[in-house]
Amino acid sequence: MNQDKLHATACALVAAGKGILAADESAPTIKKRFDSIATESTEDNRRDYREMLFTAPEAGRYISGVILFDETIRQNGAGGTPLVKVLESAGIIPGIKVDMGAKDLAGHPGEKVTEGLDGLRERFAEYAKLGARFAKWRAVYSVTDMLPSGACVAVNAHALARYAALAQEAGIVPIVEPEVLMDGDHTADQCEEVSEAVLQSLYAELALQEVNLEGTLLKPNMVISGTDCPEQASVEEVARRTVRCLRRCVPAAVPGIVFLSGGQSDVLATQHLNAMNKLPDSRPWKLSFSYGRALQAAPLKAWSGKAANLKAGQDAFLERAKANGLATTGSYG
User: Fold this and answer.
1) Prediction pTM value
2) DSSP 26-72
3) For the chain, which terminus, N or C, has the lower number of CB atoms within 10 Å?
């Protein structure tokens, strides 16, 4: 493990004014996205859509890295150039999603554990050869008056830490993604309490497994009210609560925190990030983004599966990328 190289890559992913595009949708997820624009989810259409995003003019000004799906990291663009090389030529770091999805946690109805550790060392070796320099593993936690259980928190922290150690062994920066889900009627208070418990457990496990924190990034949820909660926290309250929670739990050694949008609208996700970076308090880590839908909803609609709409799709993507780039420095709006 080259710790200096891992640290340099992690820092490059959270460079000022830049963030990460999550383009790692599984086949069922991207099919749903394509269904919304009446476009068939074929391998060529998936390639064309993602290549449209990757080749947007000056995307590298706002996008530091892209999380790819297994299919995408192996694909060539329409002109024959590997998509990994397309990204690299734009100054964008290729990454890869490596988990196999959240599955039912035995003995704990309503809870999930993320699978994919079997064979991961070998897959990391292959992904490194294909050009991946960072990776992502997502764990999910539901919030009710009874959930998440201690078991759910513990097993997912253990899996995230094992993944992170294997990633670093392969020379790949691990992004650890513990997502407290927005689904439900829980309050911002409940979200903050659960987020704190999840993060404390995660960093205890990362320490136990001797993961080098300087060569990692955190991809958490924001502290936000559940989608069905009658009282929604304001943008300013979300910013204050989120940064307070992170201060309590995330070591200063971590170079950056790249938030997931988690079902928020594209504009609201940008507003929340911007509000955090406008807070006067000092922070030891960079606050940036690793957005999927919040970067892709507008360009997907503008493109609508038609080659003639390529420029419109790229323009819509660059508009959202620039807005979020500004939000990383508190300069949006």
Assistant:
1) 0.97
2) -HHHHHHHHHTTT----HHHHHHHHHHHHTSTTGGGTEEEEEEPHHH
3) C
